[in-house]
What we know:
Blueprint: H1 3-6, H2 8-15, H3 18-24, H4 30-50, H5 60-71, H6 82-92, H7 96-111, H8 113-117, H9 133-141, H10 149-170
Amino acid sequence: MGLKEAxxxxxxxxxxxxxxxxxxxxxxxxxxxxxxxxxxxxxxxIIELKGVPHKSLLRLKNVFEDIQELAKEVKDTxxxxxxxxxxxxxxxKLTYEQILPHIYLHYLALMFGxxxxxxxxxxxxxxxxxxxxxxxxxxxxxxxxxxxADEVNKxxxxxxxxxxxxxxxxxxxx
Length: 174
């Protein structure tokens, strides 16, 4: 079974998380999206310290620009979530080779699903901007392996936890 097929179930679960659904429908407030961006910054910071297959993939600068843009209007302190802390501890233990499945998930998500998301989120959405998206995707696809399925599914599990915690914090009545 190919990687896409082996991770399709977790992919659907992540897409259907209420927070993610609200983001896709353009229903997140600036504060909610900023809190999400803070989690993304934590992920990219750890991954990019380990390295990425090509410099065109680097996202941290763009994420920080999005954060700075929204932080001018949102004055609340938005901490890193407990679920993100757990994911961060996990990511920090991985080698470069072991982190590649997480790069596959997070960076391709921005390139493909993220392009639909960009127009629906508060702010400029620089996180979703790639100089040459097809070249950047190709650098991931060149190292991609079907054997990554279990690790990609773990990454989805962490993201599902993060989406769930974001939803509970920002929408406690539901």
